[in-house]
Amino acid sequence: MKLRLMTWNVHRCVGGDRKLNVERVAEVIAACRPDIVALQELDVGRRRTGGVDQAHRLAELLEMRSHFHAALTVEEERYGDAILTALPERLVKTGALPGLPRLRGLEPRGALWVAVDLGGVELQVINTHLGLVPREQQVQAAELLGQRWMGAEGFNNPAVLLGDFNATPFSQTYRMLAAVLRDAQNGTGRAPTATFPSGFPMLRIDHVFLAGEIRTTAIESPFDPRARTASDHLPLVVELEVTVPSPAGSSPAES
User: Fold this and answer.
1) If DSSP states are collapsed to H, E and C, what string results for 162-173?
2) What is the mean pLDDT of the chain?
3) Interval 70-108: pLDDT, tens
4) DSSP assignment of 110-142, as one string?
5) Rounded CA gap, 60 and 84, in Å?
6) In angstroms, how far is CA 255 from the centroid of its own chain?
7) What pTM was computed for the model?
8) If we measure between CA atoms, which residue out of 122, 125, 130 comes closest to residue 114?
9) Residue 245: CA atoms inside 13 Å, Cβ hemisphere, count?
10) CB-count exposure of residue 190 (10 Å: 0-12, 13-18, 19+)
11) CB within 8 A of 123, min separation 6: which ones?
């Protein structure tokens, strides 16, 4: 089964032109035609962005459903990450990721896990946004690989871990993840795509990691004026081929 996934840090829908424009973000996403969208840095009910529930509004514009996890909550204002899709899905888990208690002022981080029904198999999808401090990232990556997330009962392949990891392929954090999972951009026969900063992308810190019977068939990162302006990151779009078991008693030609 062919599937298109997108990960994008949307910078609370405030673009490089400093304009708040949720609709512009939705237009960029729609142009990429993703089946599953993982977004980071969304505002929900925050005064600074007009009190809009950005996760809900984007899902509404894209005719998808959304699951949101607030990494940061201040009274009724929330800030965090979301997964959007029109495919059948169920929310499995949301939760905070550990930080470094001795370093005050670090932004709280979290993750959310959704299982997407591909018609015969569930694809486990975890969206996250790791911290800026390398040691913090490593603690958070270890948590995601551990018993509470990817090592949990019910977490089965095929699976995808994606998001803004704030970690390049030269980092210890990336090496920790790549030792267990496959980078969707590796082995495609083309140079990997950088996504940050959007105006002149030099850093590869947004990643899609794979596990199980999944094959990358295409990588895209739109670089048109609208995509370059909509956020400080570019979207990363990965087209995948996911092996779905044939129905019992049928041959591949019949399914």
Assistant:
1) EEECCCCCCCHH
2) 94
3) 999 998 999 999 999 999 999 999 999 999 988 888 999
4) EEEEEEEE-SSSEEEEEEEE--SSHHHHHHHHH
5) 10
6) 31
7) 0.94
8) 125
9) 11
10) exposed
11) 3, 36, 115, 116, 158, 159, 160, 242
Contact 209, 178 (CB under 8 A): yes
Cis peptide leading into residue 158 (ω within 30°): yes
Alpha carbons within 13 angstroms on the beta-carbon side of residue 58 total 32
Do the beta carbons of residue 28 and residue 16 sit within 8 Å?
A: no
Q: Is the pLDDT of residue 254 over 60?
A: no
Where would I find the beta strands (DSSP E) of the chain? 2-9, 36-44, 65-74, 77-85, 89-97, 109-117, 122-129, 159-164, 182-183, 206-211, 214-220, 236-242
Distance (Å, rounded) from C-alpha 191 to C-alpha 185?
8
CATH topology of domain 2-242: Deoxyribonuclease I; Chain A (3.60.10)
Using an 8 Å Cβ cutoff, are 79 and 71 in contact?
A: yes
Cα(6)–Cα(236) distance, rounded to whole angstroms?
Answer: 6
Cβ(14)–Cβ(242) below 8 Å? no
